[in-house]
Amino acid sequence: MKAAILLIILYLVGLASTNDNCYPETVYMTLGEYYSPDYSEASCTNTLQISFSTVDQCSDSYVIVLPEIIEGEEPFHTNNFLRQTAQPVLGKKQSVVEQSWNGEKFCHNGKNCEKVYYKKFVHYFTFDLCSFQKRFTYKIYGNIDESPRVFTGILPQREAQSDKIQEFLAFGDHEISVPGNYTISSLSKLIQEKKEYDGILFLGDYAYEFYNNNATKGDIYMNSMEPFYSYWPYMFSPGNHEDCQNFAFVDQKFHMMNNISQQNNNVFSFNVGKVHFLSVNLHYFNNGTGVVDPQIQESMLKSVEQDLISANLNRKNQPWIFILGHKPIYCVGRSDCYDYYVQYQQFDRLFYKYGVDIFLAAHQHETTKYYPMYQNDTMPYQQIKQNIILNPKSYMQILQGNAGCDDMNHTDVYYNATWVLSRSFDPGFGTLQVINDNLIQFLNYDSYTNSSLEPTMIYSDHSYHIKNNTIDYELYNKI
Ligand SMILES: *[C@@H]1O[C@H](CO)[C@@H](O)[C@H](O)[C@H]1NC(C)=O
Ligand SMILES: *[C@@H]1O[C@H](CO)[C@@H](O)[C@H](O)[C@H]1NC(C)=O
Ligand SMILES: *[C@@H]1O[C@H](CO)[C@@H](O)[C@H](O)[C@H]1NC(C)=O
Ligand SMILES: *[C@@H]1O[C@H](CO)[C@@H](O)[C@H](O)[C@H]1NC(C)=O
Ligand SMILES: *[C@@H]1O[C@H](CO)[C@@H](O)[C@H](O)[C@H]1NC(C)=O
Ligand SMILES: *[C@@H]1O[C@H](CO)[C@@H](O)[C@H](O)[C@H]1NC(C)=O
Ligand SMILES: *[C@@H]1O[C@H](CO)[C@@H](O)[C@H](O)[C@H]1NC(C)=O
Ligand SMILES: *[C@@H]1O[C@H](CO)[C@@H](O)[C@H](O)[C@H]1NC(C)=O
Ligand SMILES: *[C@@H]1O[C@H](CO)[C@@H](O)[C@H](O)[C@H]1NC(C)=O
User: Fold this and answer.
1) How many Cα atoms sit within 13 Å of 67 on the Cβ side?
2) pLDDT tens digit string along 452-463?
3) Are 235 and 270 in contact (CB under 8 A)?
4) How far, in Å, is the centroid of ligand 2 from the Cα of 68?
């Protein structure tokens, strides 16, 4: 009712003429603060965030979420009729961020520098969608008197349901290119099949270089990926190719709003079902080519440790802890990557100490699974067949950097290392299934051959970390 009155008022005041500069572009959805580990159970606000950009400020913009409209079905068909009993929800406009760049220099590793002239407005809307079903429709009005752009979205259940398998897409290192387009075709098939993934875990490096041609390259990429990023919640972990201007550009473009007062994407966490996810921007520690800042390092290390302590106290609800990042801690085949462990060993220590299960990274353009590692060495595990690992005694690193870019040829294909479980170099993406409290499975789709690689299963009794710790593990010992 309130929404309806507001709409009428909006309509009456909306006398502005048609304005193409208010066409909503680069639409994506992310999970809202409702999924934050600190979220109070009492209410149900900020379930979802929808974001888009416009050329002008377009202060009349608004977004409405509706029960799913099933195309081709009569309004009084049972499905549509039942769905119509849910009320439309008007989004709360949280902010409109002006992105204004006037010739600032953007580079990658000090090379490929360009002056960027760019002006866009990024709109952030949040929604309270507690009574909504998983699948819904939303309409974005860039301007009051223009026809809306209409999308379908999928909202995951926050609470773990014991009998339901959760499933996420995971990939990084992606651009519009011959290999990247293979992956886009494969993802399109998933949309046609109406797959209800719980979200996309994007592991950094989009569009190579997003700032090219006055940052239109990034927008072209986001528009090409809009069918996916507007459909499944898109959780963006920054890559090293985003580090120019201290990540300011991507921090304006992507607000991962598990905390709406948070203005950067350096550390954020969210819970979906049985998994606690923590995304960490490791590039502030990458003293080779990254953005080193001791103050940010200190505050990030503190946030990460605090987050992992509370995640451990909450293992009963979320038995799995997954880290999202971009550059790996361990690697194989590239001469420069042996430095990563040296630079990131503080995270190696924290991930081990607090019993992180999986570190999902990218950066190397391949999909590679590692045996459990700690202090630059493999840790104990049992292996059944090639692809089933039991009770790894440290976290396992999984790289999903093969979504596809122009640099997919590797001279080190035949480099084998004892700490590598499996490797594949074709473009593709991963899907991560959480089967129950003790079992997860990684599937890899190969976009060149349209086939799935053999899945990797990991069974964990979550015991390895319940040893050398100061916090009281008795509290959650029995999962
Ligand atoms: C990739 O696909 C897009 C969209 O269909 C197309 O515009 C582009 O030319 C393709 N790029 C390559 C390198 O094939
Ligand atoms: C970027 O924009 C500036 C100012 O409009 C223009 O001079 C320049 O040519 C543009 N650069 C590219 C690569 O298009
Ligand atoms: C969000 O961040 C602010 C400032 O850092 C903090 O005071 C607040 O407790 C956080 N809220 C949640 C839900 O994490
Ligand atoms: C980066 O940091 C590591 C560990 O602190 C140090 O060993 C290494 O020399 C540093 N490298 C550079 C290029 O500063
Ligand atoms: C880590 O292990 C690799 C492979 O054995 C080795 O080449 C590298 O020197 C080690 N790094 C450190 C810092 O020990
Ligand atoms: C990788 O491919 C590019 C273009 O396809 C080619 O120019 C380059 O020489 C290749 N590099 C290697 C190491 O094979
Ligand atoms: C590495 O492993 C691949 C795949 O198992 C195998 O074909 C290749 O011969 C191995 N290379 C070396 C140098 O051992
Ligand atoms: C994979 O699927 C696409 C789209 O259905 C098709 O165009 C392509 O030929 C297939 N590739 C292979 C190797 O079968
Ligand atoms: C665990 O604790 C034992 C005994 O205090 C100690 O010897 C060992 O080094 C510790 N291991 C780790 C990884 O901290």
Assistant:
1) 12
2) 988 999 999 887
3) yes
4) 42
> How far is the centre of ligand 8, averaged over its atoms, from the C-alpha of 182 (Å)?
9
Find out whether the beta carbon of 418 lies less than 6 Å from any atom of ligand 7: no
Q: How far apart are CA 374 and CA 376, in angstroms?
A: 5
- Give the residues across from 444 on adjacent strands: 430
Written out in words, the top-level CATH class of the domain with range 2-475 is: alpha beta
Q: Is 177 in the pocket of ligand 1 (CB under 6 A)?
A: yes
Q: Are 393 and 381 in contact (CB under 8 A)?
A: yes
With CA atoms as reference, report the closest residue to 277 among 160, 165, 357.
357
Contact 365, 425 (CB under 8 A): yes
Distance CA 72, CA 285 (A): 53
Lookup: tokens for 63 = 């977004």
User: Is the CB–ligand 5 distance for residue 415 below 6 Å?
Assistant: no
Verify whether ligand 1 is closer than 6 Å to residue 176 (CB atom): yes
User: What contacts 297, CB < 8 A, 6 or more positions away?
Assistant: 284, 285
Q: How far apart are CA 451 and CA 91, in angstroms?
A: 40
Dist CA 407 CA 87 (whole Å): 48
The residue whose C-alpha atom lies closest to atom 6 belonging to ligand 1 is 176
Structure tokens at 101: 């760049």
Closest CA to 149 of 262, 61, 260, 278: 61
Comparing CA positions, the residue from 251, 248, 208 lying closest to residue 104 is 248
Which tokens is 394 given?
Answer: 């440290």
To 5 degrees, how large is the angle CA 395–CA 396–CA 400? 135
Using the mean position of ligand 1's atoms as its centre, give its distance from the Cα of residue 455 in Å: 30
Length of the chain: 479
- Residue type at 213 in one-letter notation: N
414 Cβ below 6 A of ligand 7: yes
The residue among 289 and 286 whose pLDDT is bigger is 286
Residue whose structure tokens are 């190696």? 348
Cα–Cα distance measured from residue 174 to residue 180, given in angstroms and rounded to the nearest whole number: 6
Side chain identity, residue 111: K
Task: Summarize pLDDT for 6-35 with one digit per residue, the tens.
Answer: 444 444 444 444 569 999 999 999 999 999
Average pLDDT rounded to a whole number, residues 52-67: 95
- Taking the mean position of all CA atoms in its chain, how far away is CA 365? 18
DSSP for 215-250, written as a single string: HHHHHHHHHHTHHHHTTS-EEE---GGG-GGGGHHH
Nearest alpha carbon, ligand 6 atom 7? 407
Nearest ligand to residue 427 Cα: 8
Q: Cα dihedral sign for 309, 312, 318, 321?
A: positive
- Backbone dihedral angles phi then psi of residue 83, each to the nearest 5 degrees: -65, -30
